[in-house]
């Protein structure tokens, strides 16, 4: 078990003792996602893998917020938003846009001329620390409009 997954387990135990049902449910769900990912990969997860599971859980909740808001179910949207925010606290600090922009510029200077090539060179450097949509947006800004 990775150090991050172990911290989740410890937090789950604390939440159970405090009888915080909402937190128990949230942490239990994430730990279940982590265990399922271990089964899928057939190996113990590293912290980067756990962060990836967290990002997917956050993304799922943010998508639910949008659907609930469209359906006029603001109370359910608020619960999902709160869960996404609680999980986001577990993510490592994201690099600044300036750091990403510098990496994108370096990739372009090294000969990457299209979005796929830039993403292929930049994504591994920020894996687990930043969502790909941010990198994609900055890469498109740096590459300029398509010819």
Q: Would you give an account of this structure?
A:
The chain folds into 2 domains: 3-88, Uncharacterised protein YqeY/AIM41, N-terminal domain (Hypothetical Protein Yqey, Chain: A, domain1, Orthogonal Bundle); 97-143, Arc Repressor Mutant, subunit A (Orthogonal Bundle), CATH 1.10.10. It contains 7 helices and no strands. It has helices at residues 3-17, 21-41, 47-70, 74-88, 97-109, 115-126, 132-143. Helix 3 runs antiparallel to helix 4 and helix 5 (97-109) packs across helix 6 (115-126). The longest helix is centred in the middle third of the chain and has 24 residues, at 47-70.
What is the fold's blueprint, element by element?
Blueprint: H1 3-17, H2 21-41, H3 47-70, H4 74-88, H5 97-109, H6 115-126, H7 132-143
């Amino acid at each position: 078990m990775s150090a991050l997954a172990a911290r989740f387990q410890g937090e789950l135990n604390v939440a159970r003792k405090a009888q915080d049902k909402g937190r128990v449910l949230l942490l239990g769900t994430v730990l279940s996602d982590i265990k399922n990912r271990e089964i899928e990969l057939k190996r113990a997860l590293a912290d980067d893998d756990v962060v990836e599971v967290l990002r997917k859980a956050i993304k799922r909740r943010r998508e639910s917020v949008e659907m609930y808001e469209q359906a006029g179910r603001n109370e359910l949207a608020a619960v999902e938003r709160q869960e996404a925010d609680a999980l986001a606290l577990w993510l490592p600090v994201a690099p600044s846009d300036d750091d990403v922009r510098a990496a994108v510029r370096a990739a372009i200077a090294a000969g990457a001329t299209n979005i796929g090539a830039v993403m292929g060179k930049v994504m591994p450097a920020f894996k687990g620390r930043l969502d790909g949509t941010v990198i994609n947006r900055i890469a498109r800004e740096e590459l300029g409009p398509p010819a």
